[in-house]
């Protein structure tokens, strides 16, 4: 007998969304470290500042400085891969992903849960063993495990509302990470738009592409490596899975499926914001952007994505006992609270 | 080799008789085990444990830091129950649940049994789990105990006794279902030969029970949810497992809200009405307006909605009054009173410390008896006389004098044993058995239940919090006798 479509609990939607974001984040951090390790082998002069950008990409510069001090290879890798005090480390991301998955086990498939659980058990083991030689292999296996999780998700989970929240989370995270890596690398390499052409530029830009698994695709689509082409490719390509525009488009499609709003109409504020961002990305002129300030442009994109995140929270996740409280919950406070719950507070 | 040095040591062993000969129903299993390559069983055992960890089948340990999860140790050697014995246990359980349900209904309505002086009124008035808030409530179908996990033990006299009724929020059934899955993977051939009765229909039966108690007037497919305290609760795995198996939402208190005595859940599309709640949190935490005001886990106004008949709760709040161990002692009388039948399953003889003559006997025999607090579970608040020190006995003697109502005592039972894999060989370990009974339109008893095993040598305490593990329970179907015995 067919049962009526089950409504999705706000809390469950929230957890599924964050579970996906954390998995995606873990994968990205693993890829960033791996590419940097690889890049280092190609750079005979081994610039001392090569590891700092990775910290900046994950946005935890202050946390790092306080605990680890200097951005040596060793420090940065431990911080990014295994530090449980770093909320963006691979270890923390997988832990939070698992906590969220654990709270929605009845919504996701058993196979998805087992994959997340085994990823967590794996990183726990590697964290305890700490074999530096094995690191590239470890990072590769984390990346593969994350890809496997995406595959398992596609193949075993009902493509229902929860799945759309999952996809929404994954794509918002991916767009954010692509914009960050572009921002940081651009900042390092091109302090001013006219200053192009140091000896290692090509290597660095190739590394940027590799860190989003975009090197091969880029070659096919654009050929020679030039900063403008790379930026345009990573921001506005419609088909490359890590291009910001592609991510936002897919996220927007999922959001529309969630709301069920007919084409042409906009019901929720998150939909409106998403719609605006999609339009902007579709019409972006990157040559103009680069001349006037890429950093400012990327910063603007990130702000808009954060606003979408906040309004998703308001539209779908925040528990609103409508009649019981008169006051509207402060946005940031609500967000902080839900974050705290995700990172494992006191036992109930 | 595995069984070379196996001793039953004067206990009733579920697999071997007193002479050390295998019981007929255990022969096929024994032959299979003995035909395994050396070390195979141990390897299977390790593989099973790894699988449990991989699948995240764990329980949370209280008092440990957040995130500490352990697997519930699992032993591959099952407990076997003959078809005819099970048939008798099942009848006994149905009778008992019927009577207890009538009793709880009576306590919250006319209190006839108290007026007729079968059960002393003061016992009820002083029972911790008697809830005056529930007076006069009429739950759908008149059912108060929808899901029960009765603890049964077998003494060295070969007799099965009821140890506890566990009417409130019994747990453990998910382990029964997962254990069976593991066993099927490990011993597929034995299953075929023995005709073990399945347990897999439990989630279906549970859902059927929950849908049956939906408030009259709600839609054809009522919205049923499972209410959990959240991922830090020790039984969280089970909550999510059952929700998944039944295909119902797993909710926390903060997902629910009560408006005009109707319960709603907060979804991405706004509020949706909830008809039935299988609640896995205690009465105390259910509704801060009705019970503990400091509860953060519950739903304010839930009891009012329940009393108004707008939502059904399973189990019914207040049913714990019959879990009081002093009330337990009256169950045989309760059965006679409501059903005019003799009890099929026996109670363990129980001394009530609030009776002066009983108390004197208990105080003089503390070294032989097991003393239990009337309202505790999980193996806490308990003195096992023969394993106790003089100091512990002294402390309990004082506790009993200070609050005789709160203590009962029972003879120390020599729980039956089942062979258990200890390193590379078998040793007997003590077990109990918790079958699960569902009560909706009628009563359904799961074929089997959770066999808990005290893994520490000589220990009689089977609780998971105190070094217990579990085994699969194989109830044989009637076909077995014809198939195997000549």
Describe the structure.
- The complex is a heterodimer of chains A (348) and B (486).
- Chain A is mainly α and 348 residues long.
- Helices cover 70% and strands 0% of the residues of chain A.
- Chain A folds into two domains: 9-157, no CATH class; 160-318, no CATH class.
- Chain A is globular and about 60 Å long.
- A five-stranded mixed sheet of chain B has the order 3-24-23-20-19. A four-stranded parallel sheet of chain B has the order 8-7-12-13.
- In chain B, helix 3 (83-107) packs across helix 13 (331-339).
- Chain B has one domain.
- Chain B is of the alpha+beta class.
- Chain B has helices at 27-35, 40-54, 83-107, 112-115, 121-125, 173-186, 188-194, 202-212, 236-246, 283-286, 302-307, 325-329, 331-339, 356-364, 390-402, 479-484, and strands at 58-60, 69-71, 74-81, 147-149, 151-154, 160-164, 224-228, 250-252, 256-259, 262-267, 270-273, 276-279, 312-314, 346-347, 351-352, 369-373, 382-384, 407-411, 417-422, 425-434, 436-439, 443-445, 450-454, 468-475.
- In chain B, strand 16 (369-373) and strand 17 form a beta hairpin.
- Classes of the chains: A mainly alpha (348), B alpha+beta (486).
- The interface between A and B is large, with 37 and 38 residues.
Morphology of chain A: globular
Task: Outline the biggest β-sheet of chain A.
Answer: none
Low-confidence runs of chain B: 480-486
Strand order, biggest sheet of chain B?
A: 3-24-23-20-19
Pairing-aware structural class of the strands and helices of chain B? alpha+beta
How many whole angstroms does the radius of gyration of chain B measure? 23 Å
Number of helices of chain A: 16
Keywords:
heterodimer, A: 348 residues, mainly alpha, 2 domains, 16 helices, 0% strand, globular, disordered C terminus, B: 486 residues, alpha+beta, 5-stranded mixed beta sheet, 4-stranded parallel beta sheet, 31% helix
